[in-house]
Amino acid sequence: MHRLGFALIVSSLALGVAHAQPKGDPAAGKRIAERWCAGCHIVSPQQRTGSADVLTFEAIAEKSGGDRDSLASFLTDPHPVMADIGLTRREVGDLVAYIDSLR
Ligand code: HEC
C-alpha cells in the first residue's frame, strides 16, 4: 500500500514537471539552431549568410519581448516550411532559451 502511494506521488510529480515550461539550455539551443535553422534564419550575430527575407533570431527575440510561451508554442506547431523538423519538447525549450538570450 505504501509503495503504491509513493508511486502515485512520484508519477504526479513527473507530470507536474512535464507540464511546466522546460527551462532550456541556451548552448544546446544554439547548436540546434545552427544545425536546423541556419539554412533560412540568421541564428547568431556571428552568422553572415542566410535568406535575406527571413527574420534573424535576434529580430525574433526582439519581437517576442521575452514571451517564451508563445515562442515555444510556435515551435511546437511550426510554420509549414519547417514542418518536418519535428522538435522534441526539450529541443523547443533549448531553442527558446537560446533565442531569448539574444535579446
Ligand atoms: C526552410 C526555411 C526555414 C527553416 C529551416 C526554419 N525557418 Fe523559421 N521561418 C521561416 C520563414 C519563411 C518564416 C516566416 C514565415 C512564417 O512565419 O511562416 C519563419 C518564421 C519563424 C519564426 C516566427 C517569427 C515571427 O514572425 O515571429 C520563428 C520563431 C522561427 N521561424 C523559428 C525557427 C527555428 C527555431 C528554426 C529551427 C528549428 C527555424 N525557424 C527553421 C523559414 C524557416
UniProtKB/TrEMBL annotation:
<feature type="signal peptide">
    <location>
        <begin position="1"/>
        <end position="20"/>
    </location>
</feature>
<feature type="domain" description="Cytochrome c">
    <location>
        <begin position="24"/>
        <end position="103"/>
    </location>
</feature>
<dbReference type="GO" id="GO:0020037">
    <property type="term" value="F:heme binding"/>
</dbReference>
<keyword id="KW-0732">Signal</keyword>
<protein>
    <submittedName>
        <fullName>Cytochrome c</fullName>
    </submittedName>
</protein>
<keyword id="KW-0349">Heme</keyword>
<dbReference type="GO" id="GO:0046872">
    <property type="term" value="F:metal ion binding"/>
</dbReference>
<keyword id="KW-0479">Metal-binding</keyword>
<dbReference type="InterPro" id="IPR009056">
    <property type="entry name" value="Cyt_c-like_dom"/>
</dbReference>
<keyword id="KW-0408">Iron</keyword>
<dbReference type="InterPro" id="IPR036909">
    <property type="entry name" value="Cyt_c-like_dom_sf"/>
</dbReference>
<dbReference type="GO" id="GO:0009055">
    <property type="term" value="F:electron transfer activity"/>
</dbReference>
